[in-house]
């Protein structure tokens, strides 16, 4: 019986993908530690808010999440963070909230991406 050569993609050992992914997760954690203080604070609060949307059938797990709903969610998160900061600072609101809103959108979309990736890989957070 004639033996055919394997295609090139089948010659790579599979366990290396797992190790590469672990390295990426470690790198990501390290780089996130270098975020500015405000971005870290917002990221933590965004994660808390998104954990309430982490259920089967949530819009964040749609194959193609609705763009308008994501922007609305980002605006709601921005409003929540603005209200919390105003309460904590006794009304002293001197931030440029337009640029902060853009940062919050980025952080929010990135956290949604991480949650979607974790769910696809079967990684559950407790």
Strand tally is: 0
Distance between the termini: 53 Å
Question: How can the largest sheet be summarized?
Answer: none
Strand content: under 5%
| Spatial shape | elongated
Report on this model:
This protein is mainly alpha-helical. The chain is 64% helix and 0% strand. The protein has 4 helices and no strands. Helix 2 packs across helix 4 and helix 3 (67-88) crosses helix 4. The chain starts with 14 loop residues before the first helix and ends in a 5-residue tail after the last helix.
Describe the secondary structure blueprint for this structure.
Elements: H1 15-33, H2 37-51, H3 67-88, H4 97-121
Helix pairs in contact: 2-4, 3-4
Task: Give a quick rundown of the structure.
With 126 residues, the protein is mainly α. The protein contains 4 helices and no strands. α2 (37-51) crosses α4 (97-121) and α3 (67-88) crosses α4 (97-121).
């Amino acid at each position: 019986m004639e033996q055919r050569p394997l295609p090139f993609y089948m010659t790579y050992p599979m366990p290396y993908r797992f190790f590469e992914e672990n390295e990426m997760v470690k790198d990501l954690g390290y780089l996130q530690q270098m975020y500015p203080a405000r971005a870290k604070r917002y990221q933590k609060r965004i994660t808390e808010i998104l954990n309430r949307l982490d259920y089967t059938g949530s819009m964040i797990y749609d194959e193609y999440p609705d763009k308008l709903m994501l922007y609305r969610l980002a605006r709601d998160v921005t409003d929540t963070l603005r209200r919390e900061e105003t309460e904590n600072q006794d009304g002293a609101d001197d931030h440029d909230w337009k640029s902060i809103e853009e940062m919050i959108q980025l952080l929010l979309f990135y956290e949604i991406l991480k949650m979607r990736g974790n769910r696809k890989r079967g990684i559950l957070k407790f």
